[in-house]
Specification:
With 373 residues, the protein is of the alpha+beta class. The chain folds into 3 domains: 126 residues, Alpha Horseshoe (Serine Threonine Protein Phosphatase 5, Tetratricopeptide repeat), CATH 1.25.40; 87 residues; 95 residues, Roll (Pdz3 Domain), CATH 2.30.42.10. Helix content is 39%, strand content 13%. The protein has 14 helices and 10 strands. Strands 5, 6, 7, 8, 9 and 10 form a 6-stranded antiparallel sheet that branches.
Length: 373
């Protein structure tokens, strides 16, 4: 009796060799792979119990996935009952498109939509694979969310989300100024679309506000008087970003940050937004604002409250002390104020330049922006 050409012990080895052969096929699609590019054929082959057939279908898809048609095939395929291994591999191929190109690339946006949708899939394999890719490429997810919000007409800064990562100390220094491009500032006013899509995009920025790995406070939400948000909306935002990152403000912005805590009534100016209301009026770092329109100011909170009475373009008179900063030193001893008081007229501006409402507006490169004097 003759011996079989292939023994039972050799079968696993042959399967491995066959699988490797398919993995090593050249990237150029063969005529057979081109035939498999048909979505109906792909769907049937990817559901096959045969590993070899599924692998060949995946190789065919790999050759066309980095295209609009290829990603459309992915959308269609994932709507069907696929073999779990095939579904996972399709998500991985989509993830390569998602992570390897510029965030503004239309293919990246399509890949993002697929991954975000499949992260909610009823299939555990698909949802897990999609979520893993989104978590690993979290910076890309932030970039796309910012870009999509801009496209929907939401005023925010910086317009180029890649500026968030430009600082070499990103992720190591938790102290982030809310006026710097190291944090996202989003202004919710009467222009806020308020759609479920907008809230879903905002939720993708949560990591910037809560992660200890990259530092707290890299998202600041400003609710500007006149916004259409309900109390439920506001509660949801505070649940995402925390009470301190969701603040209510009037329609005008002075453009200053407080420096320390005053030992006497007044608002010590720590920093100013270039081109802001205060900076344009000549207020400087180290000044102390002690009165507004003839009425003394107790502290920064009172300044914010009283500014809510005004509209963009209104003029106010600020009494400013220059040459001495009445604030508490580390020893707890008040530093004396030896400066002179002066009256400064300030024309109030809004929280952002009107050009931020234009989805097509792009910030000039950093090397073309004049240095504030």
């Amino acid at each position: 009796m003759s011996r079989p050409l292939i023994t039972d012990a050799a079968v696993p080895r042959m399967r491995l060799i066959t699988a490797l052969a398919f993995l090593l096929l050249p990237c150029t699609a063969t005529a057979q792979q081109a035939n498999l590019a048909n979505t109906d054929q792909l769907r049937a082959t990817l559901a096959s119990p045969s590993f070899q057939e599924r692998q060949q279908a995946l190789l065919s898809l790999q050759n066309v996935i980095a295209s609009a048609d290829g990603l459309q095939q992915v959308r269609t395929l994932l709507q069907n009952d696929l073999h779990p291994d095939a579904a996972r591999r399709i998500i991985e191929l989509t993830g390569r498109v998602y992570a390897s190109r510029d965030y503004r690339d239309p293919l990246v946006r399509s890949a993002s939509e697929i991954l975000e949708q499949q992260a909610e899939s009823a299939s555990w394999f698909v949802a897990e694979a999609s979520t893993q890719i989104l978590n690993q490429a979290w910076r890309r997810r932030v970039e796309i969310a910012v870009g999509e919000l801009i496209a929907l007409g939401v005023p925010l800064e910086p317009r180029d989300p890649r500026k968030l990562w430009e600082n070499p100390a990103f992720g190591t220094d938790p102290r982030v100024s809310p006026t710097s491009d190291q944090s996202v500032r989003i202004y919710l006013d009467e222009h806020w679309p308020g759609t479920p899509e907008c809230f879903a995009l905002l939720s993708r920025l949560k990591l910037l506000a809560t992660s200890t790995r990259i530092g707290f406070g890299r998202v600041h939400i400003y609710q500007i008087d006149g916004h259409p948000l309900s109390q439920e909306d506001i509660a949801a935002l505070k649940g995402l970003f925390g009470d301190l990152r969701v603040q209510t403000r009037g329609r005008v912005c002075l453009g200053i940050l407080q420096d320390g805590f005053a030992a006497v009534p007044g608002v010590p100016v720590g920093s100013l937004s270039p081109g802001g209301s205060a900076a344009n009026a000549g207020i400087q770092r180290g000044d102390v604002i002690v009165a507004m329109n003839g009425r003394d100011l107790l502290d920064f909170d009172e300044l914010v409250t009283r500014l809510r009475e005004f509209r963009i373009g209104d003029k106010i008179q600020l009494k400013v002390v220059r040459g001495g900063i009445p604030r508490v030193l580390p020893s707890g001893i008040p530093q004396p104020n030896s400066g002179d008081a002066m009256e400064i007229e300030v024309t109030l501006q809004g929280w952002y330049a009107p050009k931020l409402l234009d989805p097509n507006y792009e910030e000039p490169p950093a090397d073309q922006v004049p240095t504030p004097r």
